[in-house]
Amino acid sequence: MFPSSIREKLTTAYHICAHLGLDDHTYTHLSARGEDGKSFYIYPFGLRFEEVTPDNLLQVSLDGHVLSGREEHYNITGYYMHGSLYQERPDLNAIFHLHTPAIIAVSSIKQGLMPLSQWALHFYGRVAYHPYDSLVLSKSQSDTIAQNSGNKKVFLLQNHGATTCGSTLEEAMFYTYHLEQACETQCRILSMNQPVVEIDPKYGYYIVCDRGYLVCPISKRKTFFHK
């Protein structure tokens, strides 16, 4: 059986991220907007991604109140960040916040994500940036992040990590995978300490704008990633 409910799909997303090594023990979080449009599902802080199940997901209001489920620790950073984004961005139905070493490294250089690979071209001219301002511990901080996201579905939190979003969970997963590949590739290229060849901007805009390269081909699938 393929996962069909929002809870099942979000659980699958947690497990895929764990399998790919994109989790950070217990310190990152994925969410999906609830069926009512006014709440979201997120894991209980303290669990590892592989421990998430459809039944232990929390349902949280957009202003950070736990509506259903059992939590051990109040996850103020997760609740504020996801809640503010869902409030500010009605186009988003899934939000993944991650901080892998490769993503943090790229977020910490002034050039940010560079056009060095075809993976990076998924995001050519489509990445927002937010300056580091400590952990998100207040609603004003999370509101600023949401405002700085503009209309982008991928944004780098400088010196911190990334947030990848989508109109569906499938779309958010698609961008998450390709962003990690782009960042890992950039780190490897720059580590060779050799002159770098960047992709000509005209090809970046051509691929993204004219060919719709950024459009996630699986964003409207009814089933989640499957063989």
Question: How would you classify the helix and strand content by structural class?
Answer: alpha+beta
Helix content, binned percent: 25-40%
Tell me the distance between the termini.
Answer: 12 Å
Mind telling me the C-alpha Rg?
A: 17 Å
Low-confidence stretches are 211-215, 218-227
Order of helices and strands: HEEEEHEHHEHEEHH
Tally of DSSP β-strands: 8
Residue share in β-strands: 15-25%
Mean pLDDT: 89
What is the 3D form? globular
Biggest sheet strand line-up: 4-3-2-1-5-8-7-6
The major pleated sheet works out as:
8 strands, mixed
Total helical segments? 7
Summarize the structure.
With 227 residues, this protein is α+β, with helices and mostly antiparallel strands.
Give a structural overview.
The chain has helices at residues 6-19, 76-88, 101-107, 118-121, 139-148, 169-191, 201-210; strands at 29-33, 39-42, 58-61, 66-68, 94-98, 127-130, 154-157, 161-166. α5 links the parallel β6 and β7 (154-157). The model is unreliable at 211-215 and 218-227 (pLDDT under 50). With 227 residues, it is α+β, with helices and mostly antiparallel strands. It has an 8-stranded mixed sheet, with helices on both faces. It is 36% helix and 15% strand. α2 packs across α5 (139-148).
Write the layout of secondary structure elements.
Layout lengths: L5 H14 L9 E5 L5 E4 L15 E4 L4 E3 L7 H13 L5 E5 L2 H7 L10 H4 L5 E4 L8 H10 L5 E4 L3 E6 L2 H23 L9 H10 L17
Parallel strand pairs: 6-7
Antiparallel strand pairs: 1-2, 1-5, 2-3, 3-4, 5-8, 7-8
Helix pairs in contact: 2-5, 3-6
